[in-house]
Automatic annotation (TrEMBL):
Pfam families: HTH_31. This is Helix-turn-helix domain-containing protein. One of its GO terms (molecular function) is DNA binding. Residues 637-673 form the HTH cro/C1-type domain. SUPFAM superfamilies: lambda repressor-like DNA-binding domains (SSF47413). Signal peptide: none annotated. It comes from Bacillus aerolatus.
DNA sequence: GTACGTTCTTGCTAAGTAAA
DNA sequence: TTTACTTAGCAAGAACGTAC
């Protein structure tokens, strides 16, 4: 039964709570002193493989994502709560379980480090690439690292584990109490005696552990963020980022006559703790999604006031989003006022980048904050790193790090986000477990300084670190039964906001949709093309609909290639319509079925455990063979051109065509005429 | 920090084509 | 002949990378 157990215990938590109580006078924090010490048992199902194992088997762990999350696998785990007094009664049994659980976590960390190192160095060392396919060798390497972790790192220290458990328990207690306050009411809770309170607490936490996806995902996220921090420290202490190849081989226990290759250390700025996960968590409330959409759609216009405003209408909420700078005293009543001008400039400069920064702020908050009142930090450079941008290398008299221009851009986005003002006339929030209609007003994120006072973000600011928290509107949706978090692929944030804007927006929209559909396990609900286009803020090109369609289908193909969606296909669409006039207007009414990747389905499974997840019907192949052959010839040309290191410009000149046209052919977007095709084939033959 | 190169997207136009 | 739509191609501009 006990395939692996993770036990998170608590002891001596009172002192810590006392300290926090002084700084913030939250009701739930007062209550937490009354809660008895408890432990969480995570019993892994025996036949369930670890995240890293199953990923490797599926062949998904490819080059880009180096390491894997340590503790995100929640669906295969049964978690229980036990009181510490119960633990004491059977201390011997539980103690051995506790040791076993620590070992399991260490094994998981070792596994991650090995996977990371293999992915990073496989191209440079033949010896390393062989163990990727040899499970036995891989296990040996994991064991070597495991032994090293147990012997040479801070994990030897019992205090480290003690702190981890305390930290974890404090989070959990507060969340649960917060939810209890929301659903039962604070007066009711106060009237309970200690025993009743503890019983209620037990009920709530058990309910959450047994199947509340949002609870479980946050549970996983905070443990993961803690252990990722460990991995970072371990990697520093073992100097994994800068050692030479043969040292890596030695570490992985492979250095037996392996061939060496001269090696220069890879960029130390490529910090794998930031790209450790394929997915991050973001809020999934309707206001959150509305703000995100307004940012990239740039649909701010003049409304009742002088400020740029975008109307919000999504599901049960209605209202508007304004760009209204933070200001003391009354707002100006003149159109010419400088801050009004500034707001309009910001509305004009909106881009997908702002939505990215917005998401990153959110995911950082969800990972670090245990309470919506908490203030969290983020480094400016981390914001850039999460977007997948590379910083410059230092050395040889040159300065390393990110450019001033890039930092300014981030500050510009932050300044905009600071200025956002949400004004909802109608919103549904959950109070005491029941939906209540209300009005909501407030900012999105509040940026603060050391003293928790408002801090104005400007482009010229020199701060490297930004502190912020959420304002009332989002806070309402973060706790209690209305809470919802969604998985957002990190790749979404990496897409070029200019060139890959369609992909970025689609990925965002799908992340939101899937989380909503997860309640019904209905991932295969068709999406109308017009709705999808509307969601990504694109209008059909009336004159040349094929442009819109081609770009749209290309975006879906790229998402599929990058693993953000599993498959996609038209549900109601007859290809012969495309030959008729006015097909574009029919096309936007067609429907598309988009199948989420297994990982997403797996993570959302606990939301609706009982119902099996539907499988996708066979994909209909549309008979556009000519398009396939186009792509063939295009990819051949690209392959040869890149092999010869020729620029598009140069090759296009040789082929007597424009570079953009050649690019379109290479990407299979445009169909060359017979004449052009003949020319291309002739050119290809020169190099065969 | 700046200048420049590369790659790609988008807007636009001329020319071609098929149906009304 | 007119209309609706597509194709080929140019020019401008955005975003990123790199060299100095």
């Amino acid at each position: 039964m006990l395939g692996g157990i993770m036990m998170l215990d608590s002891s001596n938590i009172v002192g810590q709570n006392q300290k926090e109580l002084n700084s913030k006078n939250s009701f739930s924090k007062q209550l937490s002193g009354k809660i008895e010490n408890f432990l969480i048992l995570c019993i892994e199902e025996q036949d369930h493989k670890s995240a890293a194992e199953s990923k490797l088997e599926a062949g998904q762990a490819k080059s880009s994502m180096s390491a894997l999350p340590i503790f995100t696998e929640i669906s295969g785990t049964n978690s229980f709560i036990i009181w510490e007094r119960v633990y004491q009664q059977s201390a011997q049994v539980f103690n051995s379980l506790r040791v076993a659980s620590r070992n399991r976590l260490i094994r998981q960390i070792a596994d991650n480090i090995v996977t990371y190192l293999l992915m990073k160095y496989k191209k440079l060392s033949p010896a390393l690439s062989t163990i990727l396919n040899d499970e036995r060798k891989r296990m040996l390497a994991v064991q070597t690292i495991e032994a090293m972790l147990k012997k040479d790192t801070f994990l030897v220290n019992a205090d480290v584990w003690e702190n981890f458990c305390n930290w974890f328990r404090a989070h959990l207690t507060e969340w649960v109490l917060e939810e209890m306050t929301q659903s039962v009411g604070s007066e009711q809770l106060e009237s309970l005696n200690k025993k009743e309170l503890n019983e209620l607490f037990y009920q709530y936490i058990s309910k959450n552990l047994s199947g509340d996806i949002d609870f479980l995902t946050r549970f996983a996220a905070i443990v993961n963020s803690y252990t990722v921090d460990w991995v970072k420290r371990i990697s520093q202490s073992l100097n994994l980022e800068n050692c030479a190849l043969h040292e890596i081989e030695t570490i992985l226990n492979l250095n037996k006559g392996a061939s060496f290759q001269e090696f220069t250390p890879l960029s130390p700025t490529n910090d794998f703790t930031l790209t450790v996960q394929d997915y991050v968590f973001v809020m999934n409330s309707a206001p959150y999604q509305s703000v995100r959409e307004s940012l990239y759609k740039k649909n701010f216009a003049a409304a009742h006031s002088f400020w740029p405003a975008a109307s919000i209408s999504k599901g049960s909420i209605e209202g508007m989003l304004q760009i209204k700078p933070l200001q003391k005293g009354s707002y100006p009543l003149a159109k010419e006022n400088a801050s009004v001008q500034e707001a309009w400039e910001q509305a004009e400069a909106l881009s997908d980048l702002d939505a990215d920064i917005f998401d990153i702020l959110c995911t950082n908050f969800l990972t670090k904050a245990k309470h919506f009142e908490d203030v969290v930090d983020i480094q400016l450079d981390d914001l850039l790193a999460i977007r997948g941008l590379k910083s410059k290398l230092g050395g040889e008299g040159r300065r390393g790090g990110y450019e001033l221009k890039q930092r300014r851009q981030v500050l510009k986005s932050l300044s905009l986000i600071q200025n956002l003002w949400i004004d909802l006339d109608k919103a549904v929030v959950y109070e005491k477990g029941k939906p209540v209609e209300t009005k909501l007003q407030g900012r999105t994120f509040l940026f603060v300084d050391q003293q928790r006072k408002d801090c104005r973000i400007t482009e010229e600011m020199n701060e490297k670190k930004i502190s912020y928290t959420v304002d009332g509107v989002f806070a309402k949706y973060l706790f209690g039964s209305g809470r919802q978090v969604a998985l957002l692929p990190v790749k979404t944030l990496h897409y070029d906001p200019y060139r890959k804007a369609w992909e970025k927006r689609l990925a965002r929209y799908l992340s939101w949709r899937w989380r909503i559909q997860a309640r019904k396990s209905d991932f295969l609900q068709p999406n109308k093309v017009s709705t999808l286009l509307e969601a990504i803020g694109i209008k059909l090109n009336d004159r040349i609909p094929s442009r819109t369609r081609d770009r749209f289908e290309k975006a879906l193909d790229i998402l599929q290639k990058d693993g953000l969606i599993k498959t996609w296909h038209y549900e109601k669409w007859d290809e012969s319509i495309a030959d008729q006039k006015g097909w574009g207007r029919i096309w936007i009414h067609s429907t598309i079925i988009i199948d989420p990747p297994e990982y997403v389905k797996e993570q959302y499974r606990p939301i609706k455990r009982n119902r099996p997840i539907q499988t996708l019907p066979k994909v209909q192949l549309d008979n556009r063979l000519s398009e396939e052959s186009n792509k063939m010839i295009g990819s051949q040309i690209r392959e040869i051109r890149e092999r010869l290191s020729l620029s598009l410009q140069y090759a296009a000149e040789e082929l007597e065509m424009s570079s953009s046209y050649l690019s379109s052919i290479e990407r299979g977007i445009k169909t060359p005429s017979k004449k052009i095709q003949a020319r291309l084939i002739k050119w290809l033959e020169r190099f065969h």
